[in-house]
Amino acid sequence: MSIDIAEFIDAEVERSVREDRARERREARRPLPWQEWLRHPIERARPEEPRR
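RE: above sequence
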């Protein structure tokens, strides 16, 4: 029975570590607030494609 508990705890720790690493990867790809702020006016200033 203690082996089952140990396996469960091991699986939970592994899942938690995977979630933490995935969260860190997402945060690393997210632009910083000042980058977001600079990008928005530029995107709005782009000319639109002509409509047909």
